[in-house]
Amino acid sequence: MKKILVVSDTHGNNKNLKKLIEMHKPLDMLIHLGDGEGVEHYMRDWTGDATELCMVRGNNDFFSGLERDMETDIYGHKAFLTHGHMYGVSVGVTGLAEEARSRGCELAFFGHTHRPFMDEIEGVRCINPGSLSYPRQADRKCTFMLIEAEDSGKLHFHQGEM
User: Fold this and answer.
1) Beta-strand (E) ranges in 52-142?
2) Which CATH number fits domain 2-161: 3.40.50.1470, 3.30.2000.10, 1.10.275.10, 3.60.21.10?
């Protein structure tokens, strides 16, 4: 079973991120969906060389050289990764789902809202892990997504709280 950790919106407050990585090591993949505010410079030290890192730039990553969007393969499933602010995710995920579908992706990961979310929109599973540092949902719990991938390619999604 492969382990993928998905996080977003850490905003340079990395205590929970470091703790989460230590709790779930070894990781096969770590996805950070933006607004890390420099975390990309430390991630390899925290995960180790064996972890595949996929990171995108958020609206607060002013000096980052990361890409705004990217596509990746998650064990046989094509995924679109973005922070989400350029797709209007604060008011809905339809635009995000359309972009992912136009790229041939069945999964769309985003952040920006600081609220956990998972729903299927017109055949695209849209996922937001929430925020590990500044949650905005009613209970204000720091959240993340852990995905387990079977050898067969079947994915199991687990919303986590800290």
Assistant:
1) 52-55, 69-73, 78-82, 107-109, 116-121, 124-129
2) 3.60.21.10
